[in-house]
Amino acid sequence: MAIFLCTTLPFLPLTTSFNSSKSTLSSILTNTTARYHFSTIAMNSFTTTTSASSSSMQYVPEQDSNEMERVANLTFQRYTSNSTKRSGKGTAIVWFRNDLRVLDNEALYKAWLSSQTLLPVYCVDPRLFATTYHFGFQKTGALRAQFVLECLADLRKNLMNRGLNLLIQLGKPEDIIPSLAKAYGAHTVYAQKETCSEELNVERSVSRCLQQVGVSSDESAGDARTSNSDPKLQFVWGTTMYHRDDLPFDVTCLPDVYTQFRKTVEAKCAVRSSIKLPSSLGPSPPIEDWGCLPSLEQLGLCSQNVSKGMKFVGGETAGLSRIYDYFWKKDLIKVYKETRNGMLGSDYSTKFSPWLASGSLSPRLIHDEVKRYENERQANSSTYWVLFELIWRDYFRFLSVKYGNLLFHIGIDCSKSLMPLMFFSVLA
Ligand SMILES: *[C@@H]1O[C@H](CO)[C@@H](O)[C@H](O)[C@H]1NC(C)=O
Ligand SMILES: *[C@@H]1O[C@H](CO)[C@@H](O)[C@H](O)[C@H]1NC(C)=O
Ligand SMILES: *[C@@H]1O[C@H](CO)[C@@H](O)[C@H](O)[C@H]1NC(C)=O
Ligand SMILES: *[C@@H]1O[C@H](CO)[C@@H](O)[C@H](O)[C@H]1NC(C)=O
Ligand SMILES: *[C@@H]1O[C@H](CO)[C@@H](O)[C@H](O)[C@H]1NC(C)=O
Ligand SMILES: *[C@@H]1O[C@H](CO)[C@@H](O)[C@H](O)[C@H]1NC(C)=O
């Protein structure tokens, strides 16, 4: 969970300057001289502390693919239940976004419940591989793209184990989703709700285009709906540990101080348990060509070998294996609070960030596993601290709902105090 280093910032001697308004990171980011100085300090301190391990590369998680699959299968079993009865009609689509997982995926679950036939889709959106509007930075580098491709391959495999598949299409969701909805007569498209502007723009475009493709009654087989009804677009909350609907305040009234937020949610809400899916989610509509994963070259990227540091393996199977590794096999969660700000190797902290960011791990499932560890082995402030950091993660997600694009502005009152943290989340 190093993504939110929230208390001490171990490798940067800049911590003290956060206290003075003159050298907040906001000003550092706008001041070339200071920025140069800043990155020099950061780099020097980084290379010194990592030199010991600079010659080796570690896979995270460490298991080979067969062992990962074995571990993931056990976890899939633990979070599977056949007791829910499917009551829906017709066809539903589940449009995967940053929720590339099977377990505790509410959009997938609701789509399954509401239908007789389920079509899972992922759109490889070229905009994610373009450059930023300002400065022309690449939005997705080769390593992250590789990670996402691994997530997709793994998602497809895990869906196939449950009687489905994953349709992979290259193009914009607003072009692809409505035409699939029309072709397969889907009554509803389920997707995870996002909160930031680019994702919200895509949501609006998909919604607009869906309204233009009425599904006529003879296309929606078995569904007694009137002709030319539009397929509905239903968003499902799924990115945080505490559910947005369970917050004891409207998210627009979110406290501007983290501790206040944490104390309130800890006192007044419970984390929902993760959703248990049935072992079979099929069938899906008959499709001849489920689509291939693009290569990095097709995405305009050159493959990059990792020869130093850590190589994160993409996908839910790997994410679940990392939980197993860190919690159960190596028993490291019991010292997490003491080691989490270290820099050497993969074991000082959970390293869940890449799987959380792609949605291949659900924070609620991590919560369930922490509780299981606390019941079966031991609970202390280290085990709690993993949840503490997940609450930080929730907090930033809810802040993005409250503040929208202001979150990314420099020098706005509300974001001033957040800038350092936002910035370090990128470094970690
Ligand atoms: C922050 O600044 C105040 C006043 O300038 C000072 O009293 C306090 O000790 C400083 N805190 C830290 C952690 O440096
Ligand atoms: C930029 O940073 C340098 C080094 O910290 C500092 O001396 C200078 O006053 C800063 N300039 C501005 C405009 O803040
Ligand atoms: C994991 O489960 C799938 C089916 O659900 C099975 O095909 C596969 O062989 C299992 N893998 C291992 C290593 O047990
Ligand atoms: C669910 O049903 C499948 C097939 O009927 C069975 O193999 C599996 O063990 C069941 N799982 C649970 C958790 O009951
Ligand atoms: C990456 O490593 C593989 C296998 O070691 C090698 O074949 C390939 O040329 C390397 N690619 C780059 C870009 O270095
Ligand atoms: C938690 O318990 C473990 C094992 O008993 C111990 O080594 C560790 O120091 C404890 N951590 C904290 C933060 O209490």
TrEMBL record:
Signal peptide: 1-17
Details of cofactor binding: Binds 1 FAD per subunit. Binds 1 5,10-methenyltetrahydrofolate (MTHF) per subunit.
GO MF annotations in UniProt: deoxyribodipyrimidine photo-lyase activity; DNA binding; FAD binding
Positions with a binding annotation for FAD: 336, 349-353, 389-396
Cofactor needs: FAD; (6R)-5,10-methylene-5,6,7,8-tetrahydrofolate
Claim: Transmembrane helix is one of the keywords in the record: no
A biological process term (GO) from this entry: photoreactive repair
UniProt entry keywords in alphabetical sequence: Chromophore, FAD, Flavoprotein, Signal
Domain of life the protein comes from: Eukaryota
All residue ranges annotated as the Photolyase/cryptochrome alpha/beta domain in the record: 90-225
Function summary: May have a photoreceptor function.
Entry similarity comment: Belongs to the DNA photolyase class-1 family.
Protein name per UniProt: Cryptochrome DASH
Source organism of the structure: Pisum sativum
Taxon lineage: Eukaryota, Viridiplantae, Streptophyta, Embryophyta, Tracheophyta
